[in-house]
Amino acid sequence: MDEISEGGPGNLPNAVTSFVGRRSELAEVRGLLGSARLVTLTGAGGVGKSRLAVETGIAARSAFPDGVWLIDLAAVREPELVEHAVATALGVANHSNQPAADRLIEYLGRRQTLLLFDNCEHLVQACAVLVDQLLRGCPRVRILATSRQVLDIIGGEYVYQVLPLPVPDPDTESSVEVLSRYESVRLLVDRARAITPGFVVDDINSLAVARLCAQLEGIPLAIELAAARLRSLHLDALVERLADRFGLLTGGSRSALPRQRTLRALIDWSYDLCTPEEQLLWTRLSVFSGGFDLQAAEHICADDGLPRERILDLTDHLVAQSIIQAVEGSGLLRFRMLMTLQEYAGERLKTHENVENVRDRHQEYYGALAVQVAANWSGPGQEAGLARLRADRGNMESALERCISTRRTQRALSMVSALRHHWCADGALSEGRRWLDLALALDAPRLPERATALWVAAWVSLLQGDDSAAEVRLTECDELAGEFGDQVSLCMARSLRGTVAFFRGDLRAALGHFDAASARLAEQGDVEGVLFNGFQTAIARALLQDHQAEQVARQVIAVSERNGEQWARARALYALGLYAWLNGDPDQAKSAARAGLQIQRGFNDHVGAAVMIELLAWVSTTNAEYDHAARLLGAIQSIWGVIGTSLTAFGPHLAGYHTQCEQELQRRLGGAEAFQARLDEGGRMDRRQAISYALNDPEAVAAPEPATTVEVLTPRQQQVARLVAEGLSNRQIAERLVVSTRTVDGHIERILAKLEFSSRAQVAAWVAGAASGVPASL
């Protein structure tokens, strides 16, 4: 930004580059300034706080007849000079011995002014004191501040976090049309065209563009620095070199502040603003992968040099300084760090202290967590345990990598075995197979932990349809478990041999193995094994239409209920449903399968969800609900694709009923084309949507449609949009909703920003299009 912009009093600079995206944020910040006198924009360095503040000032200029004034504090080094910087920006002279703050209050006392305090983070205390004085002494002044750390003015500060721009997922979103919707991509294109005027996103470079924006995490400064490199690097080469992002992303604009000319200088600035304790915690937090919670930080980052009781306060300080972000999900508060900041901290950690100690504590903590979840598996904490492992997936993998790279075989075997439910009941089969193979390939003396890992590896292989690999693992497990007297592993190996026979279609042989394992597991008091073996027994007997199937399934359900267990209970309910359907009772089959599938809502178990939805498709076909059944089969295909296996892995009996169902539906729906159309409709659903669809009557759930832009607006904004379409003015809408006209003004502004419209007529047309199911073309 350079020259002073026109448009009334003030000193806002004219923009040298275009302002890309952030329309929603711009509207929200303007709305906040309508009700709050102090708004602080926080966020990581380079995220675009200053630009958003200036653009907000430009957009809000008409509301402040006495001007919008920018006070850039970047070059101010001494706290006592803050007041003078404000006076200089406002052009307020002080030739008396009156304190500068009093002179400012006198000058601004009756003026309706917006002050932009930019770059406050290194002068937080001085800024907080002055801002508080100005707000108390100048009733018509409003202040918009930018800082990597909140000013922390009690009761008077509204904090607005500026996040990085949304980025595409290179694995799933690389089409030109999809990429054009992302603000990070639009910013890259805009800045790249300044370097290479003909730059466009096309089918050839779209994947590289998606990868570049994703790797730069949507940080505007990083994107701009990367675009500048297109002078001398091809886009593909730029993406390849991002492994050294701090060396690559240099050479920004000469007019920028020195700390904004390279990515490293920008983060150095943040690092230097931290206390030594904050710096130490920041660097140690770099060992986490994919986020962490406070308990993990306390266990891993604390030692004699950084007391555990200090971690909470220091974490809070790092959040306040936008080094880490607090993220709440599923009732758990977690923290994450942008990869750019994490890589920087990782480099600092290597020079700051012995990184190996911190990494060892990380491995020990997450290894113990995995073991704890496995030990409590057959109780009421299954969903929470799997959710915890899912949230810490990256940390679990980092811990496993640490075990394997340092050849700590015993720890590696223990951990891959403890994660068995994450692999097999949480949609991570391929990852589980990889880690089990790596752990079992380590050279080491014969260890008892290896026997457990062998039967877990066999289980994973079977779910993937690789029964030959499973047999090899089970043979070694039998030998090793016998050597160590490991009765549980011997029993589980025997049960899984029953699974091998089951999947090969020999149900009688399978029952021989299951029955033999059942008595021994009961003797061992192994609830997990009893339930695992029991539901498989019930399913095998159901397929044989053996009347004992119902009895065995109910026994499993009883044990599950006594222990508060859910996962095996859902499978026992499936066995009840399967038995009922095969014996001509579709209503009972539907009831049992729906009860099992309802439990699946709390899990991420693709296998369990798929087989239960499959059964409901068979029941729907029996009940002549052909459209519904075909959509369910389409949804199932999508679920199997996610985990890389199929129903054929579970034996010819289930696969045979699937084929019969397909043939019947194709005939009833009038041919292959109509049947495929229903499959395609169902295939648009993910696992969660498929479960919801399967749990409702076909009349209650319409065929799935792509999401519409109605979902962009909040319920209140949708209500206001409908009233706009009715032709009501803002005052009339305010009267109808019993709110102030200013509140309605804010809603209208945010609706226009979110929908990227410029008039009420466009909103009315959009509402009409959404109501008819045909989006307006505007």
Automatic annotation (TrEMBL):
Q: Which GO terms describe its biological process?
A: regulation of DNA-templated transcription
An example of a Pfam family matching this protein is GerE
InterPro entries, per database record:
P-loop_NTPase, Sig_transdc_resp-reg_C-effctor, TPR-like_helical_dom_sf, Tscrpt_reg_LuxR_C, WH-like_DNA-bd_sf
Q: Which residues form the HTH luxR-type domain?
A: 706-771
Gene3D superfamilies in alphabetical order: P-loop containing nucleotide triphosphate hydrolases, Tetratricopeptide repeat domain, Winged helix-like DNA-binding domain superfamily/Winged helix DNA-binding domain
Origin: domain of life: Bacteria
Quote one Gene Ontology molecular function term. Answer: DNA binding
- PANTHER family under this entry? HTH-TYPE TRANSCRIPTIONAL REGULATOR RV0890C-RELATED (PTHR47691:SF3), REGULATOR-RELATED (PTHR47691)
Question: What is the protein name given in its UniProt record?
Answer: LuxR family transcriptional regulator
Species classification: Bacteria, Bacillati, Actinomycetota, Actinomycetes, Kitasatosporales
